């Protein structure tokens, strides 16, 4: 006799709950501060060439401190690759600059030449460089032994960015949400984690609905300046939540609960440090000029004026002050707007259905650092 009794109330078992995982950032802030402080000092000594090693160390710190489901990411790029890419970029740009200089001299006589063509060329080339630099960084990013990678054409991205920026300009910024969404879709549909295809599902209309009121506040606030960090912080928080929510890797999706309040302090701290460092530079310049006047170097009379070579130490001291200011502000920006911002965004992210990334097959090939070299030479390199 079968003792199993079927009940009309039997229901099929519930499907397993979808996994929700959070990103944990474990990098120590004190370690990062020491890293960028040492890097700024070495940049001063090496005339800026140490920045390739500094960028590599910073990325290793941030990547290794970012753990998903207990597994940290890994940055495998090398400073030597960035240096070689930069030198190749300079070798390519040098003839362009020389040709433009010679053409400009000739055209200046006829008063028929302006810098607009060169500016347009370098804007488009900068977009190309940004795309290629992103490809380089992705192929040096590894998680669970599998590399991210990116395909697509840098020039195809560049002309899209150029057309969109024209539309943004003529609409006074109203087209920015649609521009950002279109460019993100292009980047993400060519981005993969192993054989897990990337995608971007957020729309420009969604971003516009969330932030249109900030566009209305921004224009009357321009003369006042003080509200701008609040407006910008609110916009970036909205943009980060929108962007994180739109990213896909196969069935893996994300969302963020980042608030504007988490960003306001970062921007105000950078502004405060910039003001303080500017005041210190003013004091330094005043002391140098006072000494110069005291010893007669700054005297304009022929009887008391020193020779030109005797003014060099004071000119060097003033120049050193400006360089030190730039490096110090750069270090402050790296701490607050790279490391601290990275931590705030990472800690705000929740990952849904991470199990879809458990059985990923490695794909993709390494690309050269030439794209990052172009971006660095044009001063548009990202992080």
What this model shows, in words?
- The chain is of the alpha+beta class.
- The protein has a domain of 128 residues.
- It is 62% helix and 11% strand.
- A ten-stranded antiparallel β-barrel has the order 1-2-3-4-5-6-7-8-9-10, surrounded by five helices.
- Strand 8 and strand 9 form a beta hairpin.
- Helix 4 crosses helix 5 and helix 5 packs antiparallel against helix 6.
- The longest helix is centred in the C-terminal third of the chain and has 41 residues.
- The radius of gyration is 26 Å and the shape is globular.
Key features of this structure:
alpha+beta, globular, ten-stranded antiparallel β-barrel, disordered N terminus
Please specify the SSE layout and strand pairing.
Blueprint: E1 20-25, H1 29-45, H2 51-64, E2 66-68, E3 71-75, H3 79-109, H4 116-139, E4 141-143, E5 146-150, H5 154-170, H6 176-189, E6 191-193, E7 196-200, H7 204-221, H8 228-246, E8 247-249, E9 252-256, H9 261-295, H10 308-348, E10 349-352, H11 370-377
Antiparallel strand pairs: 1-2, 1-10, 2-3, 3-4, 4-5, 5-6, 6-7, 7-8, 8-9, 9-10
Largest sheet: 10 strands, antiparallel, barrel
Name the poorly predicted regions: 1-11
How much of the residues is beta strand, in percent?
A: 5-15%
H/E element order: EHHEEHHEEHHEEHHEEHHEH
Strand order, main sheet: write it out: 1-2-3-4-5-6-7-8-9-10
Principal-axis shape equals globular
End-to-end C-alpha gap: 71 Å
Tell me the total number of β-strands: 10
Could you state the oligomeric state of the chains shown? single chain
Helix percentage: 55-70%
- Alpha-carbon Rg, integer: 26 Å
Number of alpha- plus pi-helical segments: 11
Helix/strand-derived category reads: alpha+beta
How confident is the prediction overall: mean pLDDT? Answer: 86
């Amino acid at each position: 006799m079968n003792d199993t009794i079927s009940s009309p109330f039997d229901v099929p078992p519930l499907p397993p709950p979808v996994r929700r995982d959070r990103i944990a950032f474990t990098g120590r802030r004190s370690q990062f501060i020491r890293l960028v402080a040492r890097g700024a000092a070495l940049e001063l000594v090496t005339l800026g060439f140490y920045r390739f090693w500094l960028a590599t160390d910073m990325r290793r710190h941030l990547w290794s401190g970012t753990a998903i489901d207990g597994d940290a990411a890994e940055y495998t790029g090398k400073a030597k690759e960035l240096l070689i890419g930069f030198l190749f970029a300079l070798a390519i740009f040098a003839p362009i600059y020389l040709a433009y200089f010679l053409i400009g001299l000739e055209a200046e006589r006829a008063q028929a030449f302006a810098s607009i063509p060169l500016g347009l060329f370098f804007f488009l080339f900068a977009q190309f460089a940004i795309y290629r630099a992103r490809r380089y960084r992705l192929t040096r990013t590894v998680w669970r032994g599998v590399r991210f990678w990116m395909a697509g054409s840098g020039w195809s991205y560049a002309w899209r960015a150029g057309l969109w920026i024209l539309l943004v300009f003529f609409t006074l910024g109203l087209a920015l949400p649609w521009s950002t969404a279109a460019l993100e879709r292009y980047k993400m549909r060519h981005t993969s984690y192993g054989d897990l295809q990337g995608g971007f599902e957020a729309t420009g209309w969604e971003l516009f609905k969330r932030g249109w009121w900030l566009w209305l506040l921004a224009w009357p606030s321009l003369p006042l300046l003080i509200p701008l960090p609040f407006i910008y912080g609110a916009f970036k928080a909205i943009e980060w939540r929108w962007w994180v929510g739109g990213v896909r890797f196969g069935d893996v999706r994300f969302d963020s609960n980042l608030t504007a309040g988490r960003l306001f302090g970062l921007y105000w701290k950078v502004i405060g440090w910039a003001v303080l460092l500017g005041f210190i530079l003013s004091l330094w310049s005043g002391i140098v000029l006072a000494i110069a006047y005291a010893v007669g170097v700054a005297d304009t009379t022929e009887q008391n004026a020193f020779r030109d070579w005797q003014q060099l130490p004071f000119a060097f001291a003033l120049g050193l002050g400006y360089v030190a200011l730039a490096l110090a502000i750069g270090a402050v920006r790296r701490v607050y707007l790279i490391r601290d911002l990275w931590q705030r965004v990472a800690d705000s992210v929740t990952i849904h259905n991470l199990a879809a990334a458990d059985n990923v097959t490695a794909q993709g090939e390494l690309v050269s650092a030439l794209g990052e070299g172009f971006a660095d030479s044009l001063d548009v390199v990202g992080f």
